[in-house]
Amino acid sequence: MNIIVSILSLTFFAQVLRLFTPYFLGANAANFSERAGVINIAIEGFMITSALGYALFTYLTNNIFLGFVCAILVNLLFSLLYALFVIKLKINQIVAGVGFNLLMAGLAKFLIVFIFQSSSNTPRIPDLPNIPYIQDIPYVGEVLSDYIILFSFALIFISNFVLFKTKFGLRLRSAGENPEAGESLGIKIRLYKLYGVLICGFLSALGGIWLASNQNSFSDGMVAGRGYIALAAMIIGKWKPVNILFACIMFAFFEALEITFQISGTFIPSQIIQMLPYLITILVLIGFIGKTKPPASDGIPY
Amino acid sequence: MNAIEFKYITKRFGDLTANYNVSFAVRKNSVHCLIGENGAGKSTLMKILFGIYKPDSGIIKINNVEKSFDSPLDAIKSNIGMLHQHFMLIEDFTILENVILGSEVTIKYKIDFEWSEKTLNNFNDKYNLGLNLEQKISEISISEQQKVEILKLLYRNSEILIFDEPTAVLSPVEVKEFYKIIEKFKDEGKTIILITHKLHEVKEIADRVTVLRRGEVVYETEKENLDINILSRKIVGDVILKNDISKETVMINQEDSVIKLSNITLRKNGHDILNKLNLSLHNGEIYGVCGVEGNGQSELVDLIFGLEKKFSGYLEKNTNKISLVPDDRLKKGMIKEFTIGENLILKDKNKLNITKKYLTGLTDEVINNFDVRVPENSVIMKLLSGGNQQKVIFAREIELNNDVLIFSHPTRGVDINATAFIHSKIIEQRNAGKAVLLISSDLDELLSLSDKFGVIYKGTLVKEFSSELENIQNETMKNKLLEKIGKLMIGISVE
After folding, report:
1. Between B52, B71, B101, which is nearest A170 by CB?
2. What letters, b where the CB count within 10 A reaches 16 and e where it falls short, cover A216-247?
3. How many angstroms separate the most distant Cα atoms in chain B?
4. Which candidate in B90, B100, B162 is best for mutational testing of the A interface (most A CBs within 10 A)?
5. ipTM above 0.85 for this complex
6. Nearest-neighbour CA in chain B from A300: distance (Å)
7. Which range marks the domain in which residue A270 is found?
8. Tens digits of per-residue pLDDT, A245-269?
9. How many domains does chain A have?
10. CATH of the domain at A155
11. Does residue A302 lie within any of the structural domains?
């Protein structure tokens, strides 16, 4: 009974929303890259660098805004490096992605030890500011007055619009589907692939920044596989923004459920609940959503 | 007035000279046919014209102005459009998206879908294309895909149109339709360059013909002096055409069919793809099936080969030893990244110890016996021309020594020389007493090879011919028969 009450509560809703945000940003990040035909499994790594970048630069400059901008710049730089490897040098994208993930996790650990002499986390940093007026709305104001959360709402429409209604999106998608065809019509395919990777870097940076801001620090292991779940959400969502939205909500819902169960201590072992999102992912992939088909030229160097 | 002038174009890829000193002109408002064997350098030349390749030397003049294109975009800007041999379409895009890609009209940031739709539908009506712009490429037939490519050219206001083997994938009815569109282009003052293998089509439509062999211009002629015999000799050079093999009488027992289909019906997505179909294959007999693509031919093949199992009716197979040369050789017939030898042993289930030496020996044998032309023995299949790929697939399927052979569009996109060779091999198999099923959209091929001949329409063999085929040498009889078949193919019944 208690559990049902807590599920129906606003706290639960806010929890789902908070869990949802980094998933959705990560999944859309990956989607822009894959729609351009570049597999980027380094979303995890990109979230780590931006989370650390945000915490580090905010601490050093004592200015949230500068920290925010620097974190994004850091990610764009890493994205350029990734693009250099996979677009220019045509290195296998899975290998490069794994490399980046390992590199970034290791680098983050090294830097916090090196700079802060701590093996686990950075000093405390302030939150991102709340949005005025919205935060005064009763009940939901607190969670909705977050810039990044609001942006991820907008991203549902932005993603859909950019990918399917604009010239840019059409060309970007042609790079992921059949680059030869695009090239034969004069489209600079590699440039669009680069755009895809850069957008991916930007969106995953927002995810990382949000995590660090929400936790008021960067700590080792804080991204905790969210980048990979974002990838799963993208696949379940069949590379379509609206479907990705539902996939992310599902993951967030079950994770929130798990937390609620853990707190209220039911007879169901929390490990079972912990399994649920993954179990459901497998079930969903088996048949509930039909065939998932990636962009035809996804992952093939051009 | 010349629309295009090639002057001393030379292009080399490593050791291979694709074009050497090519010079000729294309008159404005004419249909200019460019012919030659696979690998004669036609496509390379057109790719140079379209800005995909840069020539090593030589110049191109468009409307008497020297031009140098760095990319297709430059060519498109000069109102040149190209219909590639392998369609440049995006399967997951709609027809509309495919057409506007790269030349989108926008209002602020948004693509002006309404305007695009209106514009495209205008072309659609004017040229009778009959396309539904909302459909995805993956949902439409090959001939419709070609129309999408044509729509792309129209949308870009192309004045000079390059068609690279446009009719290779079309059925006779569709070819006629296609030439109507070409005529219309000419009426509007456009200039057309057409690459083709089919000489009787050249005779029908060309104003001027240029023949390329081994990268050089070897012959040019005007419409008035066009002679198919001369053309074919110019195309192949000194090589003797190997179509001298003739059919021998094979003693067959009509009662014993190797494969017999009675009343076969196959339903897919609520449609009867095959509908009460009857057919029997006999030893020492070539059974030809013709029809407009998509009337059940590929399902018929799958069914006999054993890939299609959900059907009603009675299928009697007296053998399971069936060879298949599939219609889409790139996707179904071979593994592109494998060498010739590796492709040859794909179906060999018994050989366990495969050494490099064994593969080399096998490859050499096939290269000799089947006249496969390769730069080197260990080349991967992808790098061979279509005709040579097909020969390798033929070799594999024939060496299996099976009782039944199915050939689906065996000479599609294959040059004259290789076609003659393949035809001789098919007849050889028949003479050896095998049962052969031949599916093709090339009526000449079907008529000259088949012992029996059926027209398939909407999944039914609507008519079978056999004795009529004996008088095929007689021009008038042949034309009468062709007319009959043409009608049957589009569903008009004849007496």
Report:
1. B101
2. ebbbbebbeebbebbbbbbbbbbbbbebbbeb
3. 76
4. B90
5. yes
6. 15
7. 2-288
8. 999 998 898 888 888 877 777 777 7
9. 1
10. 1.10.3470
11. no
